[in-house]
Amino acid sequence: MEPAAIEVSPIMQDALEALPDGFMICEADGKPIVANSVSRRRFPTFYAALDCGLDFKGAIAVSVAAAWPGASREQIEQVTAGLTSKFQTGEPYETPTEDGCIVRVSFRSMPHGRKAATSVDITELRAKEKELRRAHEAAVESENLALAASTAKSAFLANMSHEIRTPLNGILGMAQVLAMGPLAPEQSEQVSTILDSGRHLLALLTDILDISKIEAGKLTVTPIETDIIDLLERVGQLWAPKAQEAGLQFHVCVDAALPPVLNFDAGRVRQCLGNLISNAIKFTARGHVVVYASSVRQSSGDHLVKIRVADTGAGINEETLQRLFRPFTQADDTTARTYGGTGLGLSITRKLAELMGGTTTATSQPGCGSEFVLTFLGGEAATKRSSDEREGSDPGHCPSAERGSILMVGAPRRSPKD
Ligand SMILES: Nc1ncnc2c1ncn2[C@@H]1O[C@H](COP(=O)(O)OP(=O)(O)OP(=O)(O)O)[C@@H](O)[C@H]1O
Ligand SMILES: [Mg+2]
What we know:
Elements: H1 10-18, E1 22-26, E2 32-35, H2 37-42, H3 44-51, H4 56-67, H5 73-89, E3 93-96, E4 102-109, E5 115-121, H6 123-180, H7 185-215, E6 224-227, H8 228-245, E7 249-255, E8 261-264, H9 266-282, E9 288-297, E10 303-311, H10 318-323, H11 333-339, H12 345-355, E11 360-365, E12 369-380, E13 405-411
Helix pairs in contact: 3-4, 4-5, 6-7, 7-12, 8-9, 9-12
Bound molecules: adenosine-5'-triphosphate (ATP) and magnesium ion.
């Protein structure tokens, strides 16, 4: 049966004209029956070509050529083929228009093979997308540049500190030889100053090397089976005289349940503890410094070792606490002048702890002291040993620590500052 002719009532005609989008109804062969003026304005060549007797595909081809003056023959054929195939499938298709826009054209099927076509203006949307893409590319490019600059800086720092360390070790070695020789008291003091300054510089270079290795992602940790109690005892023995010299009480205690042997990087743990204990002693004028080690067994079988370093020093205000673990952070400008240091210790300590599966945190109450907590994962050791098998262990009550803890090192106050 022949399809009935389409009658468009005046009200429907007005409605079609009021649409912001192009609208057309065509026969199965693409010949338009109804089209609003938006559609005619967007594709005037298409409608004129049909009026001149061209078929749908031919009219589309001349319309695409008119809308895209610089397009090659292949490009025109490609867009034309796309549009004619989408005419059948109904899938939306994007095309330039003769009035300089980009539209999304969709054909919907109607009874008797007829199609209703809409063309929606997406020029602004595409322009915004392009702008966003450009901004994203620019951001990626500047991020890459910043990353390259930072990597270059890290490599430079690493190379420099490495290069300086070699001759410095030579200077220190020779100064040590000098110190052992027969020297007048004044000369002896001068050599001792060379040694002190050299060691300080060496420690600083080591910190810079560590920070640049961490930034370059080159720092690795090597867990090996280690007697952790022995390590804590040695660390305690190393720092006890310094605490005593500063007139502070100093205690190292361990929880009785801490497994004595675990797999972890002993050198790095010693370095972290050295940073925390040296800070505690440095920033505490009176009172005590207590180191307390315990552990929590994880479902994986590893132990999360937790070492608290608590002091009764000046404490840290909230604002400084927030930025404490960033490199080169010191409480204020006078810190470096009064206590020395560069503000690298805590940032290295946290990064190392993170590499070892833990972290470093700080809590403090200004005027009442600070507590730093170092955590790291200790793998279960093949060698099992209980705490009381240790030679020369001297279990005693640990002051300022939990019940069930054992005192490893205890240095009483010698010359109180208070
Ligand atoms: N126990 C503490 N009590 C009070 N302030 C502390 C304590 N530990 C750290 N701080 C504050 O945090 C700052 C950063 O500590 P960090 O160890 O990173 O650097 P530093 O000790 O100044 O220098 P470096 O460790 O590089 O020799 C210190 O300068 C100090 O202001
Ligand atoms: Mg420090």
